[in-house]
Design brief:
Structural class: alpha+beta
Helix content: 55-70%
Shape: globular
Length: 328
Amino acid sequence: MATVLEPESESSLESSVGTQAASDRLRANFIACRLSFTFLGVSKTLTADQKRLAAQSFDADGESISAGKKLINTKHDAWKALTSIRSQATKFWKENSLPYPESGIRLIEQDRIEQFDSTFADFREQLEAAVRMFDEQFAEIKESARIRLGSLFDASDYPSSLEDEFKIQWDFPSVDPPNYLRRLNPEVYAEQARRVSQRFDEAVDLAESAFVEELDKLVNHLASRLAGDEDGKPKIFRDSAVTNMSEFFTRFRELNIRSNDQLDELVQRCESLMQGVQPQSLRDDDSMRRNLSTSLSAVQSSLDQLVVDRPRRRILRPNRAADQSGGQ
């Protein structure tokens, strides 16, 4: 069953034109980037016999419960070093890219491919070094697990070598249909090309939504901190309430695909308000704090309205059950 588009109003049509222009810019200047990890599992499901034994404590049926055992102490410094590198790599990937409606893929600027490749290579070296440190303490970690798990401990749950247990992988896959398909089956190629085009339209919407939601969260947090409590006493806030906004402005300038003039105006307006503002100045100057709180509240109202008024193309997708039955 074909996808059906509902009739669009004049404003919706204008939005569609704007989305298409932003989608074209996105396809012309960005490329897909995929990041994944291989990490040693830290837990394992109990066997059927073990679950039945555990269920006896509750007078329950072993097949009616789920239970597992923790193989690794995740609070161990050597393990936390590994997960910290994974978190840093994931954060870098997400903060320097735009979302794409396909799991495991985000979009990066084409001229930053070398930077991404070099940065992930650095993370891989850090991970390899952390794995060597973890390996040096692996015997101690397993011995600790043996004591904690008692009769549930099983040495075969642990690999004999950590060589292939920790990896970081990244690549830059093509999201366009292969050119050979154009020659082999032009109709299928055209359909795949249409789907890719639609995905980039969705990517524009995802990027815009992500920016709106992040700015809304940052503005709301700082405004509420500056407004004080019910008694009018100033609330304590961290420097990050201010510095996070500065980082957002930088990221927005680098990744903005100019899909929404209202959003652009609000970001510029908010950046002007925060120009030269230092956390300690806000703590020391009551008048500055009150004025900024009032101004940010006005921005907050505009952001709320932007969320409400944002026109969206409503796509009626085919019924999945109907698809599976051949549309009968």
